[in-house]
Design a protein that fits this description.
127 residues, single chain, GtrA_DPMS_TM, 0% strand, mainly alpha, GtrA family protein, transmembrane, globular, transmembrane helix
Length: 127
């Protein structure tokens, strides 16, 4: 069981769940202040991005923080942010899903994509 829990993808999922809670708290707090859902989304995303980089380096892949990985890691998030934003917009505006719930199905789609990209960038290993 500990081998399963220590697998990088499982750790990545744990980090992702933790980051989802971080993102969602910031998103809801900003949404409740009256900010538009996209401003709230981008702000929450940026906060979760910082936490994600740190936890992925220290906990998931156990690599040193370097300027190179710090500069490359945003590439994983460009794809994530773009795909997540498009999905959020579609879910809210086209499918009329509540803005408070719409981030969840978007995350189900973007998490595997982000794992593959972050592993390639942070470890230089194939996924």
């Amino acid at each position: 069981m500990s081998k399963f829990i220590n697998h990088p993808f499982v750790k990545f999922i744990f980090v992702g769940l933790f980051n989802t809670v971080n993102y969602y708290i910031v998103y809801l707090l900003l949404l409740k202040t009256g900010l538009p859902f996209m401003v709230s989304h981008i702000s929450g995303f940026l906060w979760a991005f910082i936490i994600s980089y740190l936890l992925n380096c220290y906990y998931v892949y156990q690599v040193k923080l370097t300027l190179k990985t710090l500069l490359q890691f945003p590439l994983t998030q460009v794809v994530n942010m773009g795909l997540q934003s498009i999905l959020l917009y579609l879910f809210v505006k086209v499918l009329h899903i509540s803005a408070t719930l719409a981030p969840f199905p978007a995350l189900l789609i973007t998490v595997p994509v982000t794992y593959v990209l972050s592993k390639k960038i942070l470890t230089k290993e194939p996924s």
